[in-house]
From TrEMBL:
It comes from Pedobacter cryoconitis. Residues 29-297 form the KAP NTPase domain. This is KAP-like P-loop domain-containing protein. Gene3D superfamilies: P-loop containing nucleotide triphosphate hydrolases. It comes from the Bacteria.
């Protein structure tokens, strides 16, 4: 097995080696001993060596070493016979003798003086076998075979030379081809001065030919091989340290070629997992080469897009535990997500996963099962059965996301597709955007954000932005926030838990604003907070940021003092009035009217009352629009989206606490007659079973108004 590395393409060849200097597994001495045995052997009877070893263990390299040593003896003729090339037993025999004829013919040209008697008896090369050796494909007769054997024996006897026939990869033939090859060896086993070296996986070949003999099992096949092989030799086991050095050399080369720097802590994590879970499975140089080559392929593709150590480990699972890899790839539901998903009756519980693994690992030893289980648990610490769901936090989930770990649902698919999934955000592109945050203009940065959102989605972008919110400098944070404000129209603001929108991209972007200011409390954050009340193009975004800036129950938990919050509220109200223009704040901002009312009255009660009276005087239906603005919004599983509900007792009391109830009542009568209002009792929408209407809202108001005149307002 070659250890020579191509630095240009960074792929290691799986080709066998032939020179002693390339021997990394101390096999040359073993090979030389076989060659010396052949050289010094005095007995002229043929002999068959069996070189046993698993695929990829280095059998062909040992054959090459033996051949190199035999070349030093001019009287030894080496022949490599490849049985793969021949489709039937007759062509196998014919081409075998053809190979020998060609090899002996070359020696005849050199040894005229040594084999003069043989030439006198049989003539030149062209008549060596008594027939034209170019007639490949013609059938052999038993007489032909015996004639060829006789002449070959005469040649070997007179020239005092030896033939060594190498036959490799026998274990790759089908059952019939294997049987035909051994028949050939047995047929020609009485050649004098002839050595066969047959290379194969003994277990595989015994199983393949066992059906023809005795009980028809593997043991019968092994008994047959004992009759063919006189010298059974098992390839020396590659020492674990040598394999480890070889594999680590390939790993380091793949990392260096990809231009990757692995931090010390991450490097230690890899080495620990590699030596604990992978190294025991590293049994052949070929496995090391396959692993090194798969890293050479995957590392450049996913550099900076995934966690490099996780990538190296999951690639190791692919090479050393392929069935486990396939199961993980096709069943992400068992490995990603919160551990809470794997409990409480879920079909993804630990028993289900363990039963799958037990079935997959059927051919592995107990120790190997333990090793792969440990490795998978390290890659997927929140998989079914591997952690306590009640100790799993959002912070830990965010850490996995920030570190681009395979356990993160946002990154899992990248490890198996070797690409950034369409619609996902490239970390390279995102990192470039963040790096340019301090030097780019707000407009350029806003354009960059817009382009990223256009090719992915707003939720993924804001999540990625928030995942690093503790790392941004103050300057980066400010420009990122302003660029985000310029794109607030691209941030969805519907849905979320209980319909409140905090988990929507819009809500998360507002929380990001709060976190940026909180991370830099020592800076002049209040001045920037005031700017955030007026800078966003979308009033709703400024309003939501203002809400989050008020986070905290106790004064010491707040970002600002009470008077500073009042100043922010005043700025927001002034903006709402200006933005509403001729439409009025009641129509423009019904969802924010309670906050606007409270803040406006607090800072300028006279101005608020004048604004309200002017608005009501502009149209008789404006009273209905004003009242509607104060009707709460409802959410229910019974219907999609938000909907207006009812003027409850509490809501009525709130309205008449801020507005003159008699004035409102009189204006309602301008829209609906008393006869119409009293024609039916008001219905209550409750959980959305009925539809809102202005008339029903007016009837609700009038009902509470009439009850109030009686001085008792029933519950």
């Amino acid at each position: 097995m070659s250890a020579e590395i191509n630095n240009t393409e960074n792929y290691t060849s799986d080709s066998p080696i032939s020179e002693q200097r390339d021997d990394q597994f101390q096999r040359y001495g073993f090979s030389k001993r076989i060659a010396d045995t052949i050289k010094t052997r005095k007995n002229k009877e043929s002999i068959v060596f069996g070189l046993f070893g698993a695929w990829g263990e280095g059998k062909t390299s040992i054959l090459n070493f033996i051949e190199e040593e035999l070349k030093t003896d001019d009287e030894i003729i080496t022949i490599k016979f490849n049985p793969w090339r021949y489709s039937d037993e007759d062509s196998l025999l014919r081409n075998y003798f053809d190979k020998i004829a060609l090899a002996l013919g070359k020696k005849m040209e050199k040894w005229n003086d040594k084999i003069g008697g043989f030439i006198t008896k049989y003539g030149s090369l062209t008549s060596f076998f008594g027939v034209d050796i170019s007639t490949v494909g013609q059938a052999f007769s038993d007489a032909d075979i015996e004639k060829y054997k006789e002449r070959i024996n005469d040649f070997l006897s007179e020239s005092n030379s030896k033939i060594v026939v190498f036959v490799d990869d026998i274990d790759r033939l089908d059952k019939q081809e294997i049987y035909s090859l051994f028949r050939l060896v047995k047929l020609t086993a009485d050649f004098s001065n002839t050595t066969y070296i047959l290379s194969f996986d003994e277990s595989m070949v015994a199983a393949a030919i066992g059906e023809r003999f005795g009980a028809g099992d593997k043991k019968s096949g092994a008994s047959f091989l004992e009759k063919i092989i006189q010298v059974p030799l098992t390839i020396p086991k590659a020492q674990p340290d040598a394999l480890k050095r070889f594999c680590l050399k390939l790993i380091n080369n793949a990392i260096d070629s990809a231009g990757i720097t692995v931090e010390k802590k991450e490097g230690e994590r890899f080495i620990y997992q590699f030596t604990t879970s992978i190294l025991p499975k590293l049994t052949t140089p070929r496995l090391a080469v396959r692993y090194g080559n798969t890293l050479s392929f995957s590392l450049p593709l996913l550099n900076s897009e995934v966690n490099i150590v996780d990538l190296m480990l999951i690639e190791a699972v692919k090479i050393f535990y392929p069935e486990h890899y396939a199961f993980i790839k096709h069943h992400p539901e068992y490995f990603v997500g919160s551990p809470k998903d794997f409990f409480l009756g879920s079909d993804r519980n630990s028993e289900t996963v363990n039963s799958h693994f037990e079935e997959i690992a059927n051919g592995n030893s107990g120790r190997e099962k333990s090793h792969i289980k440990y490795l998978i648990n390290s890659l997927f610490p929140n998989k079914a059965g591997s952690s306590d769901p009640f100790n799993f936090t959002d912070e830990k989930e965010n850490d996995f996301f920030v570190q681009k770990r395979i356990v993160s649902p946002k990154y899992f698919d990248r490890y198996f597709s070797y690409a950034v999934i369409e619609g996902d955000i490239s970390d390279i592109e995102f990192d470039r955007l963040i790096k340019e945050a301090e030097t780019s203009s707000i407009q350029d940065l806003a354009t960059g954000i817009k382009n990223i959102i256009a090719t992915s989605d707003a939720g993924s972008f804001v999540q990625k932005l928030r995942s690093r919110e503790t790392d941004y400098t103050w300057e980066q944070g400010k420009i990122l926030l302003k660029a985000l404000c310029d794109n607030s129209d691209l941030l969805p603001n519907s849905g979320g838990m209980l319909g409140f929108g905090a988990e929507t991209p819009f809500g998360q972007a507002s929380i990001f604003a709060y976190q940026v200011l909180r991370q830099h409390e020592k800076e002049h954050i209040f001045e920037f907070a005031k700017e955030l009340m007026t800078y966003p193009q979308d009033f709703q975004f400024a309003y939501t940021i203002n809400n989050w800036l008020r986070t905290g129950d106790r004064p010491e938990e707040k970002l600002f003092k009470t008077e500073e919050y009042d100043e922010l509220a005043k700025l927001l109200v002034q903006r709402a009035i200006a933005d509403a223009g001729d439409d009025s704040v009641f129509e423009k901002y019904p969802n924010q009217i309670l906050y606007i009312l409270y803040s406006w009255e607090l800072s300028d009660e006279t101005g608020f009352k004048k604004y309200t009276e002017d608005y009501l005087n502009k149209g008789k239906d404006h009273v209905l629009k004003l009242l509607k603005a104060f009707v709460p919004v409802g959410r229910s599983n019974a219907r999609a989206g938000e909907f207006k509900t009812d003027i409850t007792k509490n809501q009525y009391e709130y309205i008449v606490d801020h507005f003159d109830k008699d004035n409102l009542y009189a204006r309602i009568l301008e829209n609906f007659s008393l006869e119409n209002l009293n024609a039916e009792k008001p219905y209550w929408i409750d959980f959305g079973e009925k539809e809102y209407s202005d008339l029903n809202m007016a009837r609700q108001f009038v009902q509470w108004y009439d009850k109030g005149k009686e001085t008792i307002i029933p519950e």
